[in-house]
Amino acid sequence: APIPAPAPKPAIGAFGFDVSGMDTSARPGDDFYRYANGAWAARTQIPVDRARYGAFDALREKAERDVRAIIEEVAAQGGEPGTNARKVGDFYRSFMDEAAINARGLTPLGPDLAEIDAVTTRAGLVRYFGHAMLDDIRLPFGLFVDQDMKQPDRYAVYLTQSGLGMPDRDYYLEASFADARKAYVAHIAAMLALAGFDQADARAARVFDLETRIARAHWSKVENRDDEKTYNPMTLAALQRLARGVDWPALLDAAEVGHQDRYVVRQPSAFASLARLVATTPLAVWRDYLRFHLLSSAADVLPAPFVTEDFADLAIHSDVPTTVLMRTV
After folding, report:
1. Exposed, middle or buried: residue 197 (CB in 10 Å: 0-12, 13-18, 19+)?
2. How far apart are alpha carbons 313 and 263 in whole angstroms?
3. Mean pLDDT to the nearest integer, 62-89
4. CB 3.0-4.6 Å disulfide test: which of 61, 122, 200, 300 passes with 192?
5. How many CA atoms lie within 13 A of 213 on its CB side?
């Protein structure tokens, strides 16, 4: 029988339980993160271009380097127009051409911004929500398709609370996050000002006020971890009765999922409150909210000032990494 080939050496350290990363001087009941990771955290420097760092970040960096090498190899081959190699090369070069991106400014977003400008009715707002769901723009309602939790032989359309620019409702409502809120309002104003909107501070204040009201409607992290409580299948008619003020058939048709016979609503009471916000908040405020979140969603491919401002906001509001016991060192 052939001799088995030796297992490949891990690309990054040794995988497993990292005893050397623990700080056993800490009592696990007082500070479990420090107990499990304290020594590792003390000796690990966060790179200057990162808001956070850990084992999974290191793995992601390596994967990105590997993918970049593959793309650059394919791009160097050229190829005839229309071939996959040529498409890959052209797409990559356009993404990396910062000078061209800066020169174009917000021109590529022109049609999207015009679509928001055209939101002058509640019906138009709802249709925009549906279209924007396909582009993964942050909205009060989120939508995703996944395996049905209780019928694993089928997929389900899940509807979930969304719409916040900071990590969760606590950032808007807890006193301990006052500094983060102040910085976030300044970030909203900066993004709108970069896009050429006047009265950016006043617009930002109104957007933040809307997000705060959205946050008040949201369920807490504890409630969202309850798999039973967040599994609420219902028909379109039942959804319409639950969340009055939103034309759900129009929204879901625009999101290309209107033909379903059932939807799983994760936070029913939140949907009822969010629908009232959709029906009562001035359309001018919704337009500024949508403009800001459009800019945020595209910031990494916009001119350099947007990239810089977006990263500064990420560094302020990035969640503290969760405890890692299985770590690469």
Report:
1. middle
2. 34
3. 90
4. 200
5. 17
Rounded CA gap, 236 and 214, in Å? 23
Beta carbons of 246 and 126 less than 8 angstroms apart: yes
pTM of the model as a whole: 0.80
8 Å CB contact between 182 and 201: no
Q: Helix crossing, 122-134 with 283-298: angle to 10°? A: 10
Q: How far apart are CA 156 and CA 74, in angstroms?
A: 38
- Per DSSP bridges, beta strands 155-161 and 233-234 are unpaired
Q: Which amino acid is at 201?
A: D
Helix H segments across 198-303? 200-217, 221-224, 236-242, 248-254, 268-280, 283-298
CA distance 92 to 53: 26
The token pair at 184 is 């976030």
Nearest Cα to Cα of residue 324 among 33, 63, 57:
33
The structure tokens listed for 3 are 């001799």
Paired strand residues for 144: 158
- Which helix (H) or strand (E) element contains residue 39? helix 32-43
- Of 161, 207, 220, which is closest to residue 181 (Cα–Cα)? 207
Cα–Cα distance for residue pair 198/192, rounded to 1 Å:
8
